[in-house]
């Protein structure tokens, strides 16, 4: 029997988040009735599966607008993590005002995307937090070449969450970022759990996954999500999907039991050998 989605405290943000949420890069950058209806069906499925944590960004084209419209009338059932991605403070303010309008006047986690002009945007976001438009503030980066700067921002005490890539092929955060997040009590959102889909192109067969079946793992995407979430320093993984069926499958990986070291090594071996 499928259990209920586990929820974790997103570090010192104070937010209580489902361990599986959803990203919107590429998948929600759509226009037109039919495509937007498709996105809404994915949101329906996420909410039904308890995976109501949604990540977006103005960098993702139409995604913030489409996500906001998909939550019309049910914004309260979702946690929204979006981003500011702008060189100037003025453009950042414009993005933030637009996103607040899409998301019913509040954003749960507002992140500085790729650390672009982070000091300026943190000033604005702190002001928004004081006005109770934003609950928590974070920062994201996808590239290990920026992790020194990310660590500096983490130590600066102005953010309470980070968003970084973590999967069996991208483990650079294990060196400094995850230990530091734990030490500082920061929330950790995991982007790119499937390496932008790259880890799914040649999935292992059922025989390879058989040792994981007793842990409730039926599919390769579920094995990858459980691999991430078995590290308690990771609080929520945000796979992107355009498919309601895939959303159901991903949400079903959000309950215990989690993997022990030996099972994690098995998944990492399968991921890196293909
Ligand atoms: N801040 C940053 O710098 C940054 C950078 C990258 C990403 N992100 C965030 O992280 C999110 C996730 O990363 P991502 O979108 O790059 O890649 P990802 O989640 O690692 O992979 C997405 C791909 O996996 C496929 N997929 C998802 N679930 C599946 C399933 N159960 N079975 C088969 N295929 C499945 C999707 O295709 P289908 O549509 O066919 O399901 C999609 O092509 C983004 O959407 C974004 O919100 C942030």
Please characterize this protein's 3D structure.
- By secondary structure, the chain is of the alpha/beta class.
- Helices cover 37% and strands 15% of the residues.
- The protein contains 10 helices and 10 strands.
- The strands form 2 sheets. Strands 3-4-5-6-7-8-9-10 form an 8-stranded parallel sheet.
- Helix 1 (33-48) links the parallel strand 3 and strand 4.
- The mean pLDDT is 97.
- NADP nicotinamide-adenine-dinucleotide phosphate is lined by residues 23-25, 27, 55, 113-114, 140, 142, 163, 191-197, 200, 221, 238-243, 246, 249-250.
Spell out the blueprint of helices and strands.
Elements: E1 7-9, E2 16-18, E3 22-23, H1 33-48, E4 53-55, H2 63-70, E5 79-84, H3 89-102, E6 107-112, H4 118-130, E7 134-140, H5 147-155, E8 161-165, H6 177-184, E9 187-191, H7 206-209, H8 220-229, E10 236-237, H9 244-251, H10 261-272
Parallel strand pairs: 3-4, 4-5, 5-6, 6-7, 7-8, 8-9, 9-10
Antiparallel strand pairs: 1-2
Helix pairs in contact: 1-2, 1-9, 5-6
Bound molecules: NADP nicotinamide-adenine-dinucleotide phosphate.
What is the distance, rounded to the nearest whole angstrom, between the alpha carbons of the first and last residues?
Answer: 31 Å
Listed once per kind, the bound small molecules are:
NADP nicotinamide-adenine-dinucleotide phosphate
Topology order in helix (H) and strand (E) letters: EEEHEHEHEHEHEHEHHEHH
How are the strands of the largest sheet arranged? Answer: 3-4-5-6-7-8-9-10
Give the low-confidence spans: none
**Roughly what fraction of the amino acids lie in strands?**
15-25%
- What is the rounded Rg? 18 Å
- Percent helix among the residues? 25-40%
Q: How many H/I helical runs? A: 10
Tell me about the biggest sheet?
8 strands, parallel
The structure class reads: alpha/beta
Output mean pLDDT: 97
How many E strands?
Answer: 10
The shape, in one word, is: globular
